[in-house]
Amino acid sequence: MNAPWLGLGTLSVDQGLTLALLIGVGFGWFLERGGLGNARKLAGQFYLTDLTVLKVMFSAIITAMLGLFWLSKLGYVDLTLIYLPPTFLAPQLVGGLVFGFGFVMGGLCPGTSCVAAASGRIDGMMLLVGMLFGVFIFNEIYPLFTEFYASTPLGQVTLAEQFDLSHGLLVFAIVAMGLGAFVMAEYLENRNRN
Q1: Are strands 153-155 and 87-88 parallel, antiparallel or unpaired?
Q2: Long-range contacts for 153-156 (Cβ within 8 Å, ≥24 apart)?
Q3: Is the pTM of this model over 0.90?
Q4: At CA 127, angle to CA 136 and CA 129, rounded to 5?
Q5: DSSP codes, 116-137
Q6: Quick one: what percent of the chain has pLDDT higher than 70?
């Protein structure tokens, strides 16, 4: 096995953080080049007039998934060394709703607000300030939510285990779903532009 580099000790923690920073800056650059630092473009997602977000994110998910799947099959990546965060169903559902509400209200998600702020957009800067303020407030009131935060633990859950599927079949199903989503996105964009 050659990867993950940090899990196998090939990279030090400092080298891993430096690599993560470079990958993050590169990803942010590509998001900006794709127009995803613009709240109006992201709002098109909710009106079904511009589904760039769906296409970019599904492309990233499928690319990473296929890369990890084939690299593990070829013996280059040990998937058991990749950290899988545990699932806490209720708090993560609430977190998803809060995230979605903020996305709809601000027109940017945390990543794209950083991209917007870095490119000088005032709305991105304000959203970034709001996010940091929200993190500070949550940290201050966290003791009130400690019990809820740890409620409904399911452990480290994967879709393959949850639906009793082989990894290969799950990868095939998600790729097929992604291709279907791309076709539907093009159809909706064309229909709603006219």
Answers
A1: antiparallel
A2: 153/86, 153/87, 153/88, 154/86, 154/87, 154/88, 154/89, 155/86, 155/87, 156/84, 156/85, 156/86, 156/87
A3: no
A4: 40
A5: HHHTT-HHHHHHHHHHHHHHHH
A6: 97
